[in-house]
Amino acid sequence: MSLSTLSLTQRAAAYEVLQDAHLRSLQPLNILMDGSVDPRLATDAVDLPRLKPSCLEHNSGRVGDWLTQCAMGDRIPLLGDGEAAMGKAWHWLVLDPSQVEESVFVERLRQVAFEKLLLVSDRPWQPSGSELRQSLGELETVLTPQPGLVIFQRSKQLNQPLQPVNQGSLSPNTAVVLGRSPAEGHISPSGAAMSSSLPPKQILVISNLYPPQELGGYGRSIADFAAGLGNNGHTVQILTSNAVYLGDIERPEPTVDRNLQLFGTYHEGTRPFEDEQQILDVVNHNRRYLLQVIAAFQPDLCLVGNTSFLGSSIFHPLLEQNIPIIHHLGFASPPYHLQEYPRHPLYHLAVASNYVRDRLLEYQFPVQDSITVYPSALVQEFYQPDLPDRNCLRIGYAGLVIFTKGVHILLEALHRLQRQGINVECSIAGDAIHGDYKKDLEQFIGQADLRDSVTFVGLLNRQQLVDFHRRHNVLVFPSIADEAFGITQVEAMAAGLTVITSGVGGAAEVVENGISGLTVPPNDSATLAEALYYLVKNPTHWEAIAQAGQRRALEKFDIKRSVAQLEIQFQKLLERAQSMPPATSSVRSPSSMSSNPLSAAIAPKSSTSLSPLPSPPLSSQFMTWLINQLQSCLNVYEHTPQDPSTIAILREMRKQVAQFWLNSPADALETLYNSSLGGAYQQLLHSGFQQNPLTDDEQQLLQGLTQAVSQGLEQPGGVNALLGVMLYFPPDKMQVRDAENRLPSWLWPDYKQCFAGAMAQDSGVTPSASVPVSPEMPADAKPLWDESFLSQLLGCANLYTVSPADPKVINRCRETRQEIASLWLQVPAEALEQIYKGPLGQNYRAFLKSGFHREPLLEPEKSCLQELSEAVKQGFDSPFGLQALLGVMLYLPPGAMQVRDAESRLPAWLLGDYQSIFAGDRHPESARSPGAVPSPDSSLSPHQDMAFLNRLLGCLNLYEIDPSDQGIVENLRNLRQQIAQTWLSIDAQDLESVFAGEFGQRYCVFLKSGFQREPLTDTESHFRQELTEKIGAGIENSPGLKALLGGMLYFAPGSMKVSNAEQRLPHWLLPHYKIVFDAPAN
Hints:
By secondary structure, this protein is of the alpha/beta class. It is 45% helix and 9% strand. It is built from 43 helices and 21 strands. α21 packs antiparallel against α25 (718-725). The two termini are 52 Å apart. The model is unreliable at 1-28, 44-64, 69-83, 141-147, 155-195, 584-619, 758-783 and 921-939 (pLDDT under 50).
């Protein structure tokens, strides 16, 4: 058996072994590295510096230098040679089999207690002696996750040395390590790529942009993955948008479908849509179209790339069909909120670098098992057998021409070289999406007299980029903001160019400083100039770096390796899918579209009623789908209630639930309500989603439901309609008269908690069985109202809330208002309190809270109000004074009426409602139109205001995508000042609790965003100085600590140092301070 025939499962297991090692980075990790191993090969294989081993045995003097170079010399104690290694248990034993005699090899295997054996070599090797083959045969598995690397897994316990057993031997070819054999003078571009046994599949690839319409390396890497999958025999279909402002499509694209829509644009900057309805339309279109593509293409698998302006909702139709997804994340930060992470067994997030995984873990994303799939490159296309001439510096830059890419740093370095008499040629390739920045660069070029040295060549396609690299010998990657990876570095290295990189974020994983490239600090033009000057003065080392860089690109970053990783993960997902129950709904063929539960949500609206759905009791698949989707959406909404895409999806889900109840037989309602579906319904009922303003379609739907309820709960469909109505009315906007006696026992508790409880809290009345259903009236008194009037009163309140502009509803409300005002004048004073606490009072309060009293008065109504007001002026102790006040409250809007000294003059049973409706809202009548939604409470502090916190998080996400957008920058400047002022205003005893809450979480995201690197305005500099002075007075006192929390927003990471921080900072702040500031200054 050869390594090339190892099963895909074995290869996948190899990556699990490596992931296990990474997870151990939080625990002590003992590694025994034999002296035969070149430590650079070992760290290349398992990323040893990231594992932070507690002990390392190595018998070579090279290891000390290597540890120092890896900045690990002061963290990893070295054991001396000899018997020390024999008395310990090791997680890893690392050997180079090509550099050690087989007898020594066997001795190591038998004497050392280890868990995993790692063989790493840069040359071919196979065991020749029978004794060694037998010892290797005693190990459990043979795994080859990458060329030059073999991992053996022990079946023995860690503390038991391996003893020889007679289990036969392996084939001599089994343990061959596929190493490199460089030809004399240059390197072969073929490399040794991982093989895959994934049979041909239908693979759908989704990305917001796709070449030739792209902005950077993300879209190009997804296109490379798609091409690689196609080359491996899979049928690939691309689904993307048509961003015509990024270029025309000049050739036929038989496998590319550009019918997705984006809820934002990249034209002249990055700008998301602001209109919620426009966003909803895009989300609905994409969902509808994706379902059609699934039905037509029948994908087995899906690869998703950039989801910006698509949103996480793009995953839902696929996962509903149990279609496995690999989402390749090429951003340095998550593309969606944590709560939107698709927690589905068939969703796998692959990251573009180890750095990206670390960032996601900081954000608490569950990505411990995510694989790192480097974007890699089509290195064969860029490969040049002969290294470029190095007779002078011919420098290239390839990437977006924006501020965060650091092109200005490169130009400043060129100016320094020019002043030293070094001749340079520089070409800048890439799209300048921000014209002002390019103008600034051109102005600097003119002032620095670099016009003859620097050329802008614009956006290049792949072939043009290949030709571009052939004309240069150095590529500078000067980014000043963290990168997910940096594919242009790999492409240049494959072409033989020497890469000088700022190494920010995942870009640091591409080159080895001083070996396969040079790394300089970001935002440091002086050091960049020195690195370029070094190459000119050290041509021998320059050549060696170029050769090593080309070798590294070909061996580590070939696209074939990354595609094989994707196939391995796809195979694992397919195996997982086979163990899952069938998909809960089907759109796998066009004929099934009509029964798809989403069809009603995405169909064009031709009337206020919903399209028919499957009969709920007979459709367990639909119920399962509805429950899972509803609970998933609600979990997201709980944490991000302002997210437009989540709101849009929940609107559709709510409509589906309402229609479900309408279609359910009356005798099945209780059973359904007590099932898991009822649990999901109750979660929606108590989520507060009803507080969102209704769309026009929802108002029409609710009006129909309300009219059905007003016919009576005893009527057929009455309770069904009520279950739908309850999803649309806020707690203080709907009441069911005599609910405890009229509602089914299985519904009453939730109604009481959600609606009756809220009304009682607002009015100060506690509903209970002891409250009379009807007032105690004199025996000979005639009833003042009947059941129909109570229903009419509540119906008017509900209808006006739904349709405040409907003339028929308004006229009906006018008539009802006059009737109830007259009715109050007939109630005896001794019965007033009891009636107010009974059904009439409850419906009266519902009418008050409908907002109808904001309607302009007609002349007869003004006369009526005048008469009532005259009665009120006589005093509340006078006959009918309070009764007249109850009538007046129906006619005057909040802010237009005030009872002097109300707390001492009004009875307790009325005071609470008066204060909540009239004393609490002093806005003028014109400030709010009938039926309008109240604006957020401006009295809230930012740390209590979710609207502020969501706006902050949204701006930070946009800044992560495009930090050069000045509109976003200005918004963040204002938000930053508000955050700082908030910290200064919070009581000292509340600092820790506020920091641990939502406000503190958003604050920490801000700290890690890098926004502090933005240049300060004069006002900000003055404000920072004020904060600094308060900090200088001592952070041990609360003013100093508050100022520090504000000041951390204004100091760039690494540029602020708190002396003796571990002893002086509180425990809840110290970890965040260390992450952001306890690092070298840039």
